[in-house]
Design goal:
5-stranded antiparallel β-sheet, flat, 6 helices, alpha+beta, single chain
Length: 282
Amino acid sequence: MTLKEIAPALIIAGFVVAFGLGRFGSRLRAKSRPPDPVDTEIGDTEPVMLNGQPQEPAEPVWDGRERYRTGTRILTAAWLLGIAVAVFWGVVGVGWAKFLAIIGMIFVAPAAVSFVVALIAAARRERGEGPSSVPWMLAMGAGVVLLVVSANLTINGLSTFVGYAPETQLHVTDSFDASKRRKSISKVSGTYIFNGEKQTIDNAWWGGDGIVPDRGEVVDMWVGPLWPYPALTGNWDAGRLLLFAGFSTFAGGACVVGALRARKNVNEENRKLSERDQWRTQ
């Protein structure tokens, strides 16, 4: 069996193990929480004396300290395992190059923009100017775009599983079988008819079950119902779209939530500056 054939089972098993470890670690921490500090007023207790000198009171004994630390380690391991399984899923689905490109587009680029915006905001505050509304507006726009992209990817990805995607046939002109050449990704090239026009795919990842079809074969394939009408050669292609949709949803949601909070903070700071200026001019 090839890695591509056993990858779904490994991914599911990895997420199940990560979830189980996370639950176990969380429960272990919950049962071994540190004791609540007891507030005592000065003069309530007599200081401990040793050789006529007052001593600091002894730290209360915490029986569950080691269990709590163990639960923390298990919970951390669960998160790391979940992240590793998600990365493995992305790499198996699209390969290292495209996976890193997607991570850079969804996470690194927004982080770089946020860093620049934060520097600009800090410079404005040093000059005594009120915060600008441009950063949160940009963040809101980016979040909306990412959520629209996520909806597009989700619909195109689910269409194959629910039988809504238009079906056509792929005439294979070239193929590359990874199982025969010790590569991690199989590719296929060919032509198909969609909306009455001849379309071409070149070195696309093979997402169907089983081995890659040879040159000259004709196999069934699907096309996403929404623009840009992605070519789906099987369930793996649809799964990749859903994976991208998950990343896009996470990034878009974070941008929208951050923009709403930033808007609230900007309005509040500008209101305070306005009241301060009015007070000074009176």
